[in-house]
Design a protein that fits this description.
The structure is a homotetramer of 104-residue chains. Chain A has 104 residues and is an alpha+beta fold. Chain A has a single domain (2-99), classed as Alpha-Beta Plaits (2-Layer Sandwich). Helices cover 41% and strands 31% of the residues of chain A. The first copy, chain A, is built from three helices and four strands, in the order E-H-E-E-H-E-H. Chain A has a four-stranded antiparallel β-sheet, with helices on one face. Chains in contact: A-B, A-C, A-D, B-C, B-D, C-D. Strand 4 (71-81) of chain A pairs antiparallel with strand 4 of chain B, so a sheet runs across the interface.
């Protein structure tokens, strides 16, 4: 099983700039040991089970809660597929195999 | 703590109509005992902790897996806020208090 | 063609409560003449073409901009399907036809 | 004004693998001339106005429609902010300025 999850999570009560808070969430993801990529609009992780992905979302909310955030918003997408992993790079390579090089 | 979660989850390998599979996910949510509402684009639930919300997403994926779905997509939104619950109806009532009656 | 769109849009620079700003977006949707439903986590609209749905998102951003919001976040889902409309109620009725009455 | 949009769009009536269809959407984005990045879970673009972003979503749906897809799903996120652009790289650099190098 391969679980790709893209998620954004941020406080909405901390003013226009939230990079301080978001950075602490990213630090937690980096320290989790999961395969991840930071994008301009969220973080993508790959795991082989959904429980691990859900636990990461929970920990992200705990990070923001610990920073004193009182309202938190999150948008999450999951792409769950039977079979082997390696889709963090595999999906983009599959597109490039069809149409040539893309920005990534 | 009040956790409002809206989520959609469906197979993408089962053809154009997926109401049979989605119905089984909704049945699971209904039997969970959580406060929920079905909308045309997803299911909204309210809990007082994020772990319970994440566990529901996990069980939804298990329902579809048990039905033989090999690829599953999900889009999830969370609105987490300190303070008391009752936001399943409270947020809409707050809008109506400002602009009058709306369709719901 | 039936286009179902669920969208949430809110400022992130206006503090913890944003019901004043969100209410003005909902007012605009109500006055648009489109078939819509307000849910605790967003607004669902049905149109017969995607251009109309995208124009609504644009107008929603303009409403918040006019209110002085300097940072706006939005999460949008589209379910586009060939064939006739009526899916605002049709999708829920299809679920109820399979598993019996649900909360809505 | 800087509009960052992350979007995924894919058919749900074309079976488990949809890379052929998704590749044509990515090709259209690449040819649009907009600044974009492909991620494992979607495409991020930056524009200076929301109309251009919405037009891209419309064209993406047209690409899939032309390929004969009869049901299309899309999940879109917008981060709209007053001020100058350059956020495609700027947001990640801001995180790295706080916590050091990250995977991207």
């Amino acid at each position: 099983m391969s679980v790709l999850m893209e998620f954004s999570m941020f406080p909405t009560d901390q003013g226009e700039s939230v990079s301080a808070q978001v950075s602490e969430v990213v630090r937690m993801v980096r320290e989790s040991g999961l395969d991840y990529r930071l994008t301009p609009m969220g973080t993508v992780v790959e795991t082989d089970n959904i429980a691990e992905a859900m636990a990461l979302v929970e920990r992200a909310a705990a990070v923001l809660d610990d920073l004193g955030c009182r309202r938190i918003y999150s948008a999450i997408k999951l792409d769950i597929r039977h079979g082997r992993g390696g889709r963090m790079t595999g999906k983009i390579e599959s597109v490039e195999g069809r149409i040539g090089e893309v920005e990534r």
